Predict the structure.
Amino acid sequence: MVGIDQVLEKLSTVIDPDLKKDIVSMGMIKDLELNEGNLKFTLELTTPACPFNVEIEDDVRKAIAEISELKNFDMNVTAKVMEGRSLDDDVGMATVKNIIGVASGKGGVGKSTVSLNLALALSQAGAKVGLLDADIYGPSIPLMLGMKDGFMEVEENKLQPAESNGLKVVSFGFFAEQSHQAAIYRGPIISGILKQFLVDTNWSDLDYLIVDLPPGTGDIPLTLAQTIPITGILVVTTPQDVASNVAVKAIGMFEKLNVPILGVVENMSHFICSNCDEKHYIFGDGGAKKISEEFKMPFLGEIPLNSGIMAGSDLGKPIMIASPDSPSAIAFRTSAKNIAAQCSILAAKLQYETESEKTNEESISETNS
Ligand SMILES: Nc1ncnc2c1ncn2[C@@H]1O[C@H](COP(=O)(O)OP(=O)(O)O)[C@@H](O)[C@H]1O
Ligand SMILES: [Mg+2]
């Protein structure tokens, strides 16, 4: 009769293509039961937005099919997002598993558009997602979501995020009167506001918190990098950025602060012609790929230049909601999956480092005793 060891051995032949580890040692097999040839378990994937979810599930089925003595096989597939940030030292925001800062060298590259549609894509995949509009000088998320008159309540000294399309949303734009004066605020005040938005907000359980940063390397990106551990930074570029090198400067600042860079997404990368359905790289192609190679960071996607994306933002109906099957929405979905995969990779690395630190500490205390 087939035994548990044999099942686990077969399952260990399935490798997660992103994490490059087998699914058994990654702890992705849960609640395994084997009863007289009847096998049952749960496959717990690392994010509902993993680009390889279907492939992993297929590989598991194939591996199990090779065990001829099995009478019955039943698999439940779920996803539990891994913690991609260190939560050890009681740093706050412990219910938020991943924080992703979205940065760019200059304004107008579509950072807010990309932040919002990526947040929606992750949420539509089944993740719990928050969106923090940290562009205190020019908050644009409320308009893009059609929430011009939105507001946040304060309960028990905590800000309650507004809700829209399944997202928890916090923006300085909700404080209409103050936001008119934002231009005169300087360093410490700005940092204080961002810290409050991060730490004094009742985010509840989130898989991903997307933080739409103002462009460049000012007080807000610096405060985000220094206030709490974050998973990493997503860099948004346009083909023109490559020539002016502005993105490179922003990446340099985060690298100096030891904040991981998740990768780069190129916005307004190409134009899809409605007559021939072909991609035209009207501003030249390969710019973001060049940056990703130079900085040894992943290239996570390219978003077309599309009037529907702009109209969606202007009308408060983002493209992920207005036309979820359009090529633009598909491009956002692909990028979102690649970003989720990068978060899982960083989470696995963090888990490995914490475990090896513990093993080191244990062996040190053993030597000492
Ligand atoms: N891929 C795109 N195609 C067409 N228009 C876009 C695209 N991305 C952004 N836009 C438009 O460009 C303008 C600037 O975008 P925004 O997201 O506000 O940039 P940022 O936050 O970097 O300043 C907005 O009018 C937006 O609708
Ligand atoms: Mg913006």
User: Anything to note?
Assistant: Residues 275 and 327 are 14 Å apart (CA to CA). The longest strand covers residues 38-45. Residues 327-368 form the longest helix (42 residues). The chain has a mean pLDDT of 89.
